[in-house]
Amino acid sequence: MRLIDRLVIETEREHQAADEETLQLLHAVTPSVYRRYLMRTHGFVLPVERALAATRDLERVIDVRRFTKHDLLRRDLQSFRMTDADLEQLPVCDIPKFRSPEQALGWAFVVERSTLSHANMFRHLASVMPGDVAFTSTYLKCYAGTIGEQWETFGDALEAVASSEAHIAHAIDAARTAFRTHRAWRVRFDDMVAD
Questions:
Q1: Nearest CA to 107 among 46, 19, 34?
Q2: Is 80 exceeded by the pLDDT of residue 194?
Q3: Selection from 49, 3, 13 nearest residue 183 by Cα
Q4: Mean pLDDT of 84-109
Q5: Which domain CATH number covers 45?
Q6: pLDDT for the residue 4
């Protein structure tokens, strides 16, 4: 079994909590709810991607340029008239330094998995608030038309680090920790940032 499939199975208990944000956006949504989603997502994706960029030898198994979704989130928030100063004031999640490519990819799994729902989210948002989403959806369209290919490429990178049971266990542990951290971050963000 490929490691990406094993990660899906091993982290299944965490998926419901992780998917709550998506489900929220697939129901009644306003521009302010969507903006808040982007802010909260930025606060998690930015430090994860910074930690990925600093991970030694990660570029040997994956093109690390894919880990620049924080730039897309920043652009979307700027389209909501947030200034650079506003963006610098946004809280960010505390993310550990990754000690290995398998740990890094375990954390990246949480972000990459979330992109699987982006097309549905974009279509829904475009139907309920087309004017707002037209200029604030570069993050949701990051893999537009290539999601299957991107998921496969990410799976190949995971296979490249799955050289031993210990490496596999590290990736699984990292993904579980990332899901738990993401859930805690959502609560913390909501406590820190008023509507």
A1: 46
A2: no
A3: 13
A4: 97
A5: 1.20.910.10
A6: 98
